[in-house]
Amino acid sequence: xxxxxxxxxxxxxxxxxxxxGNHTTGDFDHTEVAIFIGKNPWQSHGVARARQVLxxxxxxxxxxxxxxxxxxxxxxxxxxxxxxxxxxxxAWCVSAIVATLVQEELYDKxxxxxxxxxxxxxxxxxxxxxxxxxxxxxxxxxxxxxxVARRIAAAESVATYEDLGVQQSPNSTLVAYLNKMxxxxxxxxxxxxxxxxxxxxxxxxxxxxxxPPAQGAGYGFPLRRRLGTAALKTASTPxxxxxxxxxxxxxxxxxxxxxxxxxxxxxxFDAVAxxxxxxxxxxxxxxxxxxxxxxSGARILGGLVPCNAIxxxxxxxHPDRLRAMWIDSSNPAHSLADSARFRRAxxxxxxxxxxxxxxxxxARHADYVLPAASQxxxxxxxxxxxxxxxxxxxxxxxxxxxxxxxxxxxxxxAALIDRLAVVDEQLIADLSAAACxxxxxxxxxxxxxxxxxxxxVGLTPYLLYxxxxxxxxAGQRSLALIWGFAHLCAISQPDAVVRAGFTxxxxxxxxxxxxxxxxxxxGVVFAEDDYDDAxxxxxxxxxxxxxxxxxxxxxxxxxxxxxxxxxxxEFPFVLSAGERRSFTANVIIRNPDWRRRDRDGALxxxxxxxxxxxxxxxxxxxxxxxxxxxxxVVEVSDMMRxxxxxxxxGIGVSYPGPDGDHTVGVPLNTLTAxxxxxxxxxxxxxxxxxARIEVLDEQPIGGETTTGRTLx
Length: 712
What we know:
The chain is α/β, with parallel strands linked by helices. 38% of the residues lie in helices and 14% in strands. Among the domains are: 4-198 and 540-559, Dimethylsulfoxide Reductase, domain 2, CATH 3.40.228; 566-706, Barwin-like endoglucanases (Beta Barrel).
């Protein structure tokens, strides 16, 4: 399995797992010093009310903003400190900042002693960093680096945010580690304005982690857990049969079944919920799926194969090579490095199936295409629940009926599983009948079934859709999956869910949350944490941050002994392939006419480079890399430093017109190389592509130089 996270976030996710076990988020509303590394929140957001928050930080003389970015981005223009480093040198820059904290004794010794372990090897490694040499390597003034480190150390609070600008550049996993050292070494965790591990509706990355309630376990907890677990496993069939029989009879019998199920849940739910839910969440999140791929030996994290390794696993005669590919709501023939090679890999497969809302570049190379309803025609939601202390989740409702010939993805998968006949029809019928008796009766039958038949746990979404979903109002069958999310969330974070207003006890709390998620279309605050709760989210048994990652400390020493060089006489520029701009989108909006500005997705280039090449804004050039070439127009922009050029993301997809399909803008991955990737988890170097520019027409110097939008 793979998805977009496998070409963005796996390095950072692995670092998080080693340090404390889960994802962190910054309290940018209250932080004194905000640090953005390869991140331009003015355009890419990632922070709630991003533009307003940036304005508030910029206007407050007691606060400071630090931006580490080769570009003079919209956010960098607002920053108090802009470290405009050479492209691809983030590891040298950030290590110099962190080394300054250590070498100038600016780190919080007492806090580290109380809350962290493995600190001394980290300090020893950072004392060995040559700050002056690393400043030279990243082309940032050493005094500026030291000034930023001192400002971090002096602050009451610090929050950091790294994003694709660095996560798709060289040394991304190492930079993720060094980034986190900035706030760990200064004790900026679990405090207003600092960094926090947050709640999840369901973990998008990392492990599902249950936080015990502050009030402790109820009366006779160990005995009730043993009895309840044994009953679920050994009495699964009779429990399901009783609840199903009740569901098939009259209202009086159904009410009796509901009362009986409620008694069972009242007596045992709190005792058995965590182990039962944990087994379900572990399978569905795939957090324990690690190892390496069979052909290329690429590291797998959370079940995700690095995107840049997928073609390697196909274009070979290895006996364990990939033979088929199922592609859902993804366009890898456009979005993965070296598109031509990926298309060759698709042709080499024995079977390819695409499920999508559009006839994408990938769909055109597939054996089968299953058309899905669009996001306006179905219930949908996002698991990017990354906020602290108040976390939110929204179920978006359909605005119109699906087009004829399309189905929602749950309906597509349910139909396929039906045809495969991997689940006994009688079991489906029994669980559906139990659901008719009530959700309490269904819960007892459902969880007992999964405990007795753990091989069905991976089919939990299907089972919910087919059974509980059949009892929901017309058109809402897929909301049965939200029922599962609601209960897993309420079980894992009971106190936070109670503080968010869901105060019922036991099983009823998850029901209360489910009803709110289905009916409050504006979204729901599902968890509200205290700042101290961040400590309870740490997944190490000792409750401490484990600062030492030996593999990355060795890598730090190796990087600091290396001179960065990404260009050559043949390819003198570094191309960042995929810049977020005002009118770019993640290819979900394929019609180019929606872009009111920069319709063609111009190549941005610095004024000195444009002067040297004799071109101005509007000139046509060819961008050439080791894997391909593309023609584009030029925008001369003072955002760019000399030697650095960029093209926007979300461009270069085909769209039908009166004269047939046409493509506007550059398909970026005709220019990128799959072999250029992070050594640890294979993240592509999309933001660091050696390139050259060939001028195609005579263009007088003096075309307009853009400065970006004037910020209010």
